[in-house]
């Protein structure tokens, strides 16, 4: 579940203890003709998530465009595929009982979750958890920056469309059952995990973030679909698409997309870019 917190719903508790000497991850990738300033984002938040790191915001006025995973301000005609199996069709009786218990804690209708595809039921639970924690998508980093870009007439580019993201979720192994059951099985432990997660994100602690990432219950197929394959696609776009061959671009993607040898900075380095971390980081303890 922890991986989806940064990639799909980003359900993080408003618990901020990092010092001013540490901040969320910001990377710079550049070559002779272009510069990418990359911020690891959270998709739901509150006022305590701001201000954003100066290592990112100081480049705003000189940027040629804001690049996001998907431009959620843009109207979309994307619709669910009615042929995709529902949660009720995918779960065993025991799994349905576990889901019903979690739905009760989340104050959601279990029948509504059962009639949804498993991936959507997972996101519904996660968004409800965000709401109960006092977080809102309206204060998420992506949406906040999208609104700022629109207000300042900064061009907005997207790495994926809403339609592509929808099809991605529908094509997950067992239609996202793995995502749903990880959410259900870890529900009772989330307060402690999220406290650790938010401290690691705010401090830019890559080691702790990677540990949390590796300890989640997702299978390899879900990992590949949600993180690794998308990272490779984005790195290829940024490196080779004509749109990105000249200029300065501010890039905002989920923070888990920035980690390790399969992370976006490392993949851009393989493409020949010079890579530097612009933000200040520190280690945090979750003991």
UniProtKB/TrEMBL annotation:
<dbReference type="Pfam" id="PF01963">
    <property type="entry name" value="TraB_PrgY_gumN"/>
</dbReference>
<feature type="signal peptide">
    <location>
        <begin position="1"/>
        <end position="21"/>
    </location>
</feature>
<keyword id="KW-0732">Signal</keyword>
<dbReference type="InterPro" id="IPR002816">
    <property type="entry name" value="TraB/PrgY/GumN_fam"/>
</dbReference>
<protein>
    <recommendedName>
        <fullName>GumN family protein</fullName>
    </recommendedName>
</protein>
<dbReference type="InterPro" id="IPR047111">
    <property type="entry name" value="YbaP-like"/>
</dbReference>
